[in-house]
């Protein structure tokens, strides 16, 4: 009984004790987890700093609502500005770091209103519409970040576009008060109207330490090459006046001067030129009989006759842009918008974005002392070149001058290219209109060591009306393992291609492209349908090549993607008796060209052939219906400095079924024209780029006494 009573007295009391213990344990555990979640949430969502908590957006905060910051009279002033600054001395590239997109990150300081001790603002205009547009464009771009710790570049929300509206000392003190200023390191300031009377300095007078300056009036004395960025002076008329693009060509006036505040000596000289050349030159000035205001800004006059500005600029081939009190002039933007070729006379002026833009293609720069010779200089420019310059001038405006957004994005891209040079825009991307789709193709000079095998190649077959032969070529090419796509270039405008049901059935996509004109150069056009790096150009009568020959040619090209890889080789020789070059098709020990009747090459060269072929070579080829293959050999050799690669022993493309009427190469004048082509092209290139070699590429076991079934390419074909 005692034992039983003892057990019974402990048993009932033990269960509640276990429940209490577990309850305390779970409550403690739950409390720890809850506190952890709260702490994590606070860390995640609580602003890490005042800087990163205020994302820049004028939509969320007006200028009047911005916090007021008083500047003490004793606040520090930044250094004047180090003229020796370069990207490797005054810019911390390590702050930018590596990122997969190769894109710098730009942080915009929160908007603040800076005033002195008595409440007077540092600027008489506050935040201008232009600077607001600029900051908004940056904040909407891929460059922007609201995380100050990720920023590579810092842009103050202090507007210094127009120095005339600034209090120099107080503005400098405001810059020094920025939390991340650090002597201006990695800070970017935008200024379009530098200096002031009487000397009009060509760079912003505000002391700025090491800050980069995107300036609109740099001279060679103030511009820090490779550090600062020369930008245009924005013209408000760009947004207010819509000038439709005008086709290049002759205009009513040859030269036009529209500036109203040029130096008296320049105006006297222009009037003398006007007297000498009459109606060819139109010399405009401001209208004295109009009331001041917006209307007068958009008018120009000559002897009482009123002209609309900037519309009148479209009536001239050349438009004068002379220096004023400042080197940078908004007139340059107006002239470009009108598609008028600017004649720039401003000694020592650093042209906008000249770090990347080729101004020789869009303008004429004449020393100021040559103003009396301007008419003669401009008359010496060929009409065709003038038209190209008119077209390029308009495109420069559209791409780089037309808005504050365009100016800002161009500035940031230039800085981005400096920091990530391996991903920088090419000359073509900066200077060629977008009709040339350079972004869709990479130069083979910078491909991986060996392009991957998987994408294969695109066979581009040029044809006219040899249907039976074309179908045989398609059937044979389709047997090549690495073929990815077939593209038939139908060069006959008088006859439609066969119906779809009649074409050979192949396992790869087949596309027919109809051309507008019968030109040999059509075979090298950069069609959008070409998606592979490798291209096989082949004629519609090349039925003799085996699938092994074609597959081996592709494998060789993969190892040498910057070369032309072909089959029959040809040679150029110097004829000492005739004193000129000669085309040679006989069997020799040397090769300097391969026929593109069947040849592999990188699609990049299609773009160069179509858009960058020197002189009139492409037109000459199309007019003579010959030598497009020689032109391509010249082009590739000139770009790479390397010879083509001949593969397999084949010497000729023999077409047993082709007659003299069908075969272009059998024309009696063909060989004579081929020699003429070489001399013509060498003259245009200004050199002989073709390189001579004494080797060809064959499969390793090509002639070895080895079982055929063990060879990778047993059917290499005959001579």
UniProtKB/TrEMBL annotation:
Any idea which UniProt keywords this protein has?
Disulfide bond, Endoplasmic reticulum, Glycoprotein, Glycosyltransferase, Golgi apparatus, Manganese, Membrane, Metal-binding, Signal-anchor, Transferase, Transmembrane, Transmembrane helix
Q: Which SUPFAM superfamilies match?
A: Nucleotide-diphospho-sugar transferases (SSF53448)
Q: Domain (Glycosyl transferase): give its ranges.
A: 457-702
UniProt xrefs under InterPro entries:
Exostosin, Exostosin_GT47, GT64_dom, Nucleotide-diphossugar_trans
Gene3D superfamilies cross-referenced by the UniProt entry: Spore Coat Polysaccharide Biosynthesis Protein SpsA, Chain A
Annotated GO biological process = cartilage development; chondroitin sulfate proteoglycan biosynthetic process; embryonic pectoral fin morphogenesis; extracellular matrix organization; fibroblast growth factor receptor signaling pathway; heparan sulfate proteoglycan biosynthetic process; odontogenesis; ossification
Stated EC number for the protein is 2.4.1.224
Residue ranges of the Exostosin GT47 domain?
101-381
How is this protein annotated for GO cellular component? endoplasmic reticulum membrane; Golgi apparatus
- Summary of the function given for this chain in its UniProt record: Glycosyltransferase forming with EXT1 the heterodimeric heparan sulfate polymerase which catalyzes the elongation of the heparan sulfate glycan backbone. Glycan backbone extension consists in the alternating transfer of (1->4)-beta-D-GlcA and (1->4)-alpha-D-GlcNAc residues from their respective UDP-sugar donors.
Assembly mode: Part of the heparan sulfate polymerase, a dimeric complex composed of EXT1 and EXT2. Could also form homooligomeric complexes. Interacts with NDST1. Interacts with GALNT5.
Name this polypeptide is given: Exostosin-2
Q: Could you tell me which species this protein originates from?
A: Danio rerio
